[in-house]
Each structure stands twice: as C-alpha cells, then as structure tokens.
Prior knowledge:
Layout: H1 33-46, E1 50-54, E2 69-74, H2 77-86, E3 91-94, E4 113-118, H3 128-139, E5 143-149, H4 151-155, H5 174-183, E6 190-195, E7 203-210, H6 212-227, E8 234-239, H7 246-255, E9 259-264, H8 271-282, E10 286-290, H9 302-314, E11 320-325, E12 328-331, H10 339-348, E13 353-354, E14 356-361, E15 380-383, E16 395-397, E17 425-429, H11 435-446, H12 452-456, E18 480-481, H13 486-495, H14 498-510
Parallel strand pairs: 1-2, 1-4, 2-3, 4-5, 8-9, 8-11, 9-10, 14-17
Antiparallel strand pairs: 5-7, 6-7, 11-16, 12-17, 13-16, 14-15, 15-18
Amino acid sequence: MSLFRLPTDYVARSEPCYFDDSPFFDSAIVHQPEIYEAADYFLQAGGRTRILDIGCGNGRKLRQVRARDHVGVDFGANIALCRQRFGAWGTWLEADFSQRHCAAIAAFADASTVVVCADVVEHLLDPAPLLNLLAQCYRRGAIVITSTPDRLKVRGAADRGPPANPAHVREWALEEYVAYLDACGMPATYAGHTINNNIARALRTIVTVHDIGIDRARASLAQSSAARPQQRPLAILAAYNEADVIAEVVEDLIAQGCDVAAIDNWSTDATWPILNRLAARHGAHVRIERFPEDGPARHYEWRRILRRKAQIAHGFPGRWMLHTDADELRRSPFPGLDLASALHVAAQAGANRVASNLIHFRPTDTRPFHPGTLQTAFNHFEFGTRLGHFKQVKAWLQGAALVDLASSGGHVAAFPGAVDFPYRFLLRHYPIRSAAHGQRKILAERRNRWCPDERALGWHTQYDGFCETTPGFWPSRDLLKFDGDFWRDYGLPLITDIAERRWANRSLATGGSLGLAPAHSHADAAAS
C-alpha cells in the first residue's frame, strides 16, 4: 500500500483540471445531497450553530443547511460565484487546499460547528494540507463529514487509475480511504456509502463522520469499565402471545448487556412458561410478571401497560431504561459496541435520552417461521411507512421523575430535562414472521382486543387494511436487501433523520412510501 493507502500499482493523475462548479448552479442534479442533510441533522440534534463547508463549490447546497453561521471555502470561479450570488448571507473564504496555510481555516471550527468536505480530497495532488485542516477541525470539537467517490463502486475492482474524471487525481475504495484518514489523525465514527446524486441514487460515494466527542466518550467508557463494571441497562418488555420469538429476544437483550423486566399480558400460548424458564436460567438478570395483576382484561389496554412500564423504571434511578417489545431487536449505532456500551457512551456524551430508527423485516414468501431463527430467517426490510415509525424515543436514563410514556402512545419517553443523543440507534422490527403468523396475530389475537377508548384516540389503526385475503408477505423486489453491506449502505440514514426526511418528502409529494426503497402496494401492516 502507498502513502495514500492505495494499491502500489495505482496510477494517479499528474495534472488535474480545475473543477468549475458555477455552470451547475441551476442543475436539477444535486450531488451528495445526503451529506448536507446529515450536516443539517447534526446541527439541529446537537444544538450546533455553524456550518463550515470546505470546498463549497457554487454554494447552493450550503444554502439548504439550517445554521446561524454559514461559512463556505473554495477558490477561483467557485468562490467568486458564491460571493456574487449570496453576498453577505454567508461568509465566503478563499483558500487553496493544496497549500499548508489553508490550516488557518480551522479557526472557524469548534464544538459548535459541523464541517463538510464533500468530494474534495480526490481533486488534490497533495491532499495532506486538506487532511491536516480537517484533523484540526476534528480536534477542536467539530463534527467532520467527508465524502469521495468509491473507486470500486464506480469503476470496478480492476481499476488502477488514473480516474476517468479529468478533475480527479486519485480515487479510493472504502477501506483504503478510511485507513488513509485514520493515518492522518481522523478516525471514523461512521464510514459507509451514500447516494451519488438525487437522480441516480446509486450507493457509490464514500461518506465518513468524525466526532471526537464520541471518541472521548468511548475512551472514558473503556477506562471506567476497566475500573468497575457499568450498571446494566434494564429493558422493559411487553408481550402477548409471542412464544415463537420471546426466548430469542430476551437472550439477545442479555447478550447485548441488558437486564430484562418482562410483562406478560396474559398470553394464551406458551409465552408465560417460556418466560419462567428464562427467569430461572438467568436469575437476577430476568424478572417477570403478569399484568394486570388481577387477571386477563377484556381489552388490550396499552395505556395501562405503558404506565406500568414507567412505574417499573421509576424504581431504578440512575439506570438506563429501554421501553421495548417482544418482536424487536435493538442495536448500537457504533460497530463494535453492544447496546449497553453504546448507551453508556451516550451518557458520557451528556445525553439522557436516545432515539432509534426503525426498520421492518418482512417475510417474502409463504414459508413458515421457525422459533430461534429471527436473526437468520429474514433478509429483506423496509424503512418506516407511517409517521409513528419515526417517533421512537424509547430509551432514557432514569432520573427522579416518573417518565410519561402513555401520552404519546409509547412513542416518546417524556420527562423534564431530556437531552437527546444525536446518534440514533437501530430498532429491528419483526411484526409479522410469516403469512400464517400474520393471519393469526392480526385477525384472531389482536383485532377483537383493541381498547375502544384507545381506538377513539386514533391508536391501533396499523392493521386496519389487513383482512382474510391479505397475502401476508411482501415481494422481495419492493424491499431492500439485508446483507453484509447493510450498515455501510444504510448507516447514514439510520444514525440521522435522513430516512424520516425521505418519508416526509415522499408523503408530501405523492402520498407514497419512503424514497429509500421502492414503494409497494401491500396493505400497511407495519407496527406491532
């Protein structure tokens, strides 16, 4: 590998062309749109106030980012156009990123800043000054977001340069680029792929996020864990007739570093005996109860269950709580960290509440579901299809106050002084495990148990389109593939609100489903 972490036989371009972005100001094509959406998200979610766009081009994408201060940096015709078009709206700085003095731009970056450097590094004969600038911004507390084309995705594994684009000097593959940034003092908090533009939407562009606050929190966690064990989060789980998955979900939560408090709503299948066996096996790590205490109720009273969950949580001040269900698996947003460790990182970073992004796993044929295979039987998913799917603020650090889950129908844990962690966690949802399961769950076990008062509030409507003739499975062509590239390909929408933005924009424009995946005509049976 070379200094740039490229193959030793890679041939770089020796004389790149200057890329004049001014002719593309009014183009319908927007390159790397998710980079700027992610920047906007981190600004809002983290209470940051400045966006610093290093290599801002014609500046139009910077205009879409909500911030108190907008700073764009480029040179030549690009920065001249920004000054002409936008004037005093932003601060427009001229700098040559191949020269060492560009590092002075780092003075504009601190813990209130998000820095964007989108598709710049590939244009430079010597990118060391640029990487030094970005590393200084990172060390000063800014969140730094970079992008560059993925050589292998664009041109194939055999490509050894020079790039086809005459303005590019060299192009990296994902692992090469991450290694190069790391060697330059820029470890990646997240690294994966993002869409190349708003039209083609091909996952061919590398994206990296760098956040020294998270790195410091992880280091602090490692040091404190070495000194004393961290208190385990408590997952408060509600179940009704979930015998096919309850054992796997509870065991998974324990493996993720959590304890479990399971509430059985008087299941009529084997859920309760299974919970008893789990409690006997895991001792203090699993506590179980049946609710209501006085026996089965006529209706499924979700508000009462939510209030019971809040009461349980109130008994464990200073401990992370998870409001979860028996058809859900929870995951950390940071590869290599389990759920418990990631929650402790959130606390170290100053947060006391965590949101998740939800994806639904779908059966794609009529095959039966076999217990114990939840994590292996499903390889197709979709993002949320309803507004409620994006309101998943269900993990919190329990304080002295009783949290309010009931007012939001369980979507948001509300309490005074909530500080949200800017990185969203992942909620993997398995509401319908097979066509036969869907028919039994919805038509036989759920439909006649909904509480009329809660239905009057607009709750429990997610299955209204499901009937005896509903197939109960989804065509795989209408879904996204869950495979080894999942986190790389969809991590950026999952740790931010990009998936929610796509849903909102699509719904406003067409009334359809999320633009990240093809729309399907199947009746929406998404929520549990």
